[in-house]
User: Fold this.
Amino acid sequence: MRDVAIISFAQTRHRREISDINEVEMLMPLMGEALAEAGIAKERVDFVCSASSDYLAGQPFSFVMSLDAFGPWPPISESHVDMDGAWALYEAWVKMQMGKTDIALVYAYGKSSPGNIRRVMSRQLDPYSLGPLWLDPVSMAAMQARLGLEAGAFTEKQMADVVAASRRHGAANPFAQLGGEFDAGALLAEPEFVSPLRKHDCPPVTDGAAVLILAAGDVARELSERPAWIRGIDHRIEAAALGVRDLTRSVSTEQAGARAGVADGPVDFAELHAPFAHQELILRSALGLADDVTVNPSGGALCANPIMTAGLIRFGEAATRIGRGDGDRAVAHATSGPCLQQNLVCVLEGE
Amino acid sequence: MPPRGSCPTCGVATDEDVELTDNGTITSFCVVNVPFMGTLMDIPYVSALIVLDGSDIPIMHLIQEVPYDEVHPGMRVEAVWVPDDEIGATLESIRYFRPNGEPDAPFDSYKENV
Amino acid sequence: MGKERVAVVGVGQTHHQAIIDGSIAGVVRTAAQRALDDAAMTWSDIDAVVIGKAPDFFEGVMMPELFLADALGAVGKPMFRVHTAGSVGGSTAIVASDLIASGLHERVLTVAFEKQSESEAMWALSVSMPFQPPMHAGAGGYFAPHIRSYMRRSGAPDHIGVLVALKDRLNALKNPYAHLHQADATFESINETMMLWDPIRLGETCPSSDGACAMVLTNEAGGDAAAAAGRPPAWVKGTALRSEPTMFAGRDQVNPQGGRDCAADVFGQAGITDPLHEIDVVEMYVPFSWFEPMWLENLGFAPSGDGWKFVEDGVTQMTGELPVNCSGGVLSSNPIGASGMLRFAEAAMQVRGQAGEHQIDGARTALGHAYGGGSQFFAMWVVGADKP
Assistant:
């Protein structure tokens, strides 16, 4: 496998609503920042891959205009996925394995504010049997949490601890939407939102975007003092039907984690894309992370959840911390689909 | 025109507003005969590519107040606006374009946009 | 190109039609099963699945790869969904090809589909952008003025579009999977159809179809094994993608730079310097008949302004020097998300000798072409009967 590293990353200050500028205007400054951090002009980028959701934007072909933020002229080699940006990163990484692509730029964005995100996301379901029930992601996550609590896979106190830790980290992250000091006991005293989930166990509604640059081999060493090398990366998907899966564990994360080689070395910290508090516990277990491994020093998706982007942000946050020496080996993860149906796991290392 | 916050080829923010007139030249057009869900127009109607004087990107808009079979490239047109109190930051502020009575623009003046 | 050679060892597609009476899962599985059967493989042989389709509004399902994971045997495997507008079927095949060329997987199933009957395609193509009035009435309304510009620039006579439509509709009669089978199509019958977006007639326009296309791609070992078993593969000799902005000063929408650059890239990879003579058959994305002469020029087969002469002289007929769209093309079947992959697959079928009645004898090198958006996204591949 060809050595590929993340060498720069830029993200918006994520907010409940970014309504005064459109997606192109959101992305443009980030493109500039990421390119500047990498010290390159856009002409040096060999491949661009983006991620967004037409359904979220409420418009077919919505991603077409966003490419203007990069300025694709002369014409560029470019592709797009209607999935989280972490999969756009994966597509770029695959392209780079073939040898001709040395630098790739990946971007993702999502504006949840214009619509009703819970209703929109219910369109992800089987259109014949589940779609007509308008089952939304919060309700499905709540069922998963209920199953986990009753099976003894985790406790409400553990969920509250996840939220408290996330919010504390979020307070230290200038890009996070939410943050602050919360006592786990006080969190547990809050009323239930969609039982057994409390409001704080759920992700916030967020508008945001992110841009990340990958470089291969010596090009990465030339452009970055401390690239975050992708040592292993894999993704797997599970069955769509909720009743067919064991929702108290994440089998596809276990599979992807094993193939990515998570257990091949010590993990200093992990950025896990867990939109719901109990899911962080499930993922932690699936990846075999010891209790002393810090999860989501950025605050995670519980502090900022721009749809289609939150997974990519985990990669960017992990790479940034490795870049400044906050750790040598980290796990970055992204998820897609109801109740952790599809998962992508990556091991990042500083040299 | 259309006004935008960034240059689509460079990916950098635009910072200078240039005021244009609302007169332009038709570079091409088509006559729409097909009804579809969501259409607001009676068919047939003409939608045309119009390059406004002083700009270099044709915009698409409707042509009215002229029989559809008289529309042709080179035709000089002017905008018909909604009432002043309805004008907003949207192309919908222009209801349509109509001939402005000037003689046709010579092909050379707009051939870059064909 | 990459570390590994890529071979197409299985091709499958549905019988495309206005409404396929079945579920979305059924539609994709039909195509996928046919591709697996053609490859003499089963679901468990596949390492990864790459699916592509156009906007989710066409079916009303967001991110359909999620609910289709089971139907496509993807549970426990990596599954990927590509979306690059109209060119998506092509770019999906390219992503699948990359997974093998990179050495990451050995056998990849790739599927592209659209079930437009679930929604209303023209509406989905005309949803108005914020701040703009809805006026152009679908893709045809967008392209019609540019086609008029081509006619003016090239001086092409009015009937060229009808000639292309007639050719593709008659070719489709030789393709059992095509949606439109108009056995009584004539020049007059097409010429007399109503103008939809003058200068585009109804008879010169693609249908709205339900359909899916699938291919099984393997590495060199898989291709050799297929050849040894009497199932000759199509070898991938080059793949390329290009995109350009929708609107900018000086943009040529009739002969886009992106298309020219993409063609130059893919021909360069395949070692082709004289496309007209070295390519035996072309499957290009022609949803409105006038795109055939336009793309002939854009791809470098015909000099600028002369594409229409190729049409008039019969060069692009099945009996001509450069047969184009022997399958009937997009003009005869257009499940939008699948159409790009159908072009790539039909090109592969030609060099494998499996195109049945619409086979060009002795075809050894073929071009598959797809485009999307406002003529701004391009995906192309060159396949050959010989290993690169």
